Amino acid sequence: MAKQNVAEMFVDILVRAGVRRLYGVVGDSLNPVVDAIRRTPSIDWVQVRHEEVAAFAAGAEAQITGGLAACAGSCGPGNLHLINGLYDAHRSMAPVLALASQIPSSEIGLGYFQETHPDQLFRECSHYSELISNPQQMPRLLHTAIQHAVGRRGVSVVSLPGDIASQPAPEKTAGTALVTSRPTVRPGDAEIDALVRMIDEAERVTLFCGSGTAGAHAEVMQFAERVKAPVGHALRGKEWIQYDNPYDVGMSGLLGYGAAYEATHECDLLILLGTDFPYNAFLPDDVKIVQVDVRPEHLGRRSRLDLAVWGDVRETLRCVIPRIRAKSNRRFLDKMLKKHADALEGVVRAYTRKVEKHVPIHPEYVASVIDELADEDAVFTVDTGMCNVWAARYLTPNGRRRIIGSFSHGSMANALPQAIGAQFTDRDRQVVSLSGDGGFSMLMGDFLTLVQYDLPVKVIVFDNSSLGMVELEMLVAGLPSYGTTNKNPDFAAIARAAGAYGVRVEKPKHLAGALKDAFKHKGPALVDVVTDPNALSIPPKISADMVTGFALSASKIVLDGGVGRMLQMARSNLRNVPRL
To answer: What keywords are annotated for this sequence in UniProt (predicted)?
Structure first.
């Protein structure tokens, strides 16, 4: 029996850690590892067209399964392309192991062809990034990298020179048990005692929830009922907390809607549950605030805290619920629920009714029809920008659906690559990519990956021929839009030329039928929907500075001869502007 080399041992350890595929693009320094995968039936090599896609796909797989996923890039430019997707995975707390293959070990530091130093380059977007410089080092270093990725929920990077990958593996290696799940973290007794006192003393309690409430839906609902608290959420908390929630008051932040903003500002105790909500301008500064988070570095970095509680949300609430006094006064809760209902009726649903004849198609209407037709356990991947807004406001979670996006890193072009990783976890589960035309065209080459592997991903392109969110940012800043227009092809025709199903929709009456046909199609499908470029997202709370900026940009557009466009914009958004 031939002696195992380092690459083969590397692959064996990945398999033991639960990795079932490695996403990447082949290259000479990666060849020993790819060849080892070729000969290992329990793991697959997934050939993508761009390494950035490999990292996004691995991050999405990790978020779907909760386990370790992996990607790889060849030396120099190859692994450097991974960096954007790895940043996203790391900030999404997705356990990903990245293999950054390296130039020959004897040439490192000598300006060799394609030389970079990945062990240094990836340190900011990883918990662990190290170079294997000796075969004896590999097993322990890879084990350590896996423990960091799984235990701390994020990225680990292992740099491996191709010549070392080809060398004989160490003969005697101790079998090391690998971490496969995280422990629960219970707060200290002093923090629990203090939290109970603050809840009992408060008259109006609001809960604001993030992705840290995953797995704690029942406890959050029980807690909300006991203290009669409205429950708002951040975008990353939507899929975990919005469904089956009679206390829901919507979402706060730049993409927000409903009464979440009012609920967080009119309470006398705000409890942040598992959220690292980045927009401190939307958080109050004149109420008591408690934050519960399993990652202590998140505590207090967004707002002033009256109490910091280090612990899992579910475990914390299990400790607190039996000890607090039940509240009977629902006045504050009912007031917030009424405000939320009014907001939904007057703003969020405005574009989904009586729009059958509106051309170009309202993007809100597209999102609402997708929500209605998609499977009950569908996975939605969502591009950054306006697609985030439509997904946040119109996709309905139910405890079985998943909504994945670049919600912390905010990268363009994430939806298609993430859909690839999500679909590989289960070919029979519906995966729908909500892609903006700007994001889709940025990494459009990997639509060919769907075709190559016959992945049945459904790509819905919101084709408004513009970078809509950037345009809104310019308007709010008092600037006329510039450099935001895209001259797009017929994306459906490109899909058909690639060998996939493709259809273009320009009229609302054709939308539902086109989506139904695409969803029924057995393989990859693309629906290119021409949408209204004048539909803008309006935050639930508009500041005077925002209004001034918007008015200033409007006047500049008018002075530049764009009055027709401003009229169209006013008509598109009149019902979507909250009263000041």
So the answer is: Oxidoreductase, Pyruvate, Thiamine pyrophosphate, Ubiquinone
pLDDT of residue 576: 45
Domain ranges of the chain: 6-166, 189-341, 356-573
pLDDT of residue 2: 67
User: Cβ contacts of residue 423 below 8 Å, gap of 6+?
Assistant: 379, 429, 431, 455, 456, 457
Which of 396, 444, 451 has its CA nearest to residue 423? Answer: 451
With beta carbons less than 8 A apart as the criterion, state whether 377 and 473 touch.
no
What is the C-alpha separation between 294 and 464, in angstroms, rounded?
40
* 221 burial type by CB count under 10 A (0-12 exposed, 13-18 middle, 19+ buried): middle
Cα dihedral 45→51→52→54 (10° resolution): 0
The Cα 50–Cα 78 span in angstroms is 9
Q: What is the mean pLDDT of residues 535-555?
A: 59
Cα(259)–Cα(9) distance, integer angstroms: 55
pLDDT at 425 > cutoff 80: yes
Q: Which CATH architecture has domain 356-573?
A: 3-Layer(aba) Sandwich (3.40)
Distance CA 363, CA 382 (A): 14
Residue given tokens 């959420």 in the structure block: 233
H-helix segments, 17-108: 31-38, 51-65, 77-80, 83-91
Domain 6-166 has CATH 3.40.50.300: no
189-341 matches 6-166 in CATH topology: yes
Q: In angstroms, how far is CA 548 from the centroid of its own chain?
A: 32
**Is the pLDDT confidence value at 350 over 70?**
no
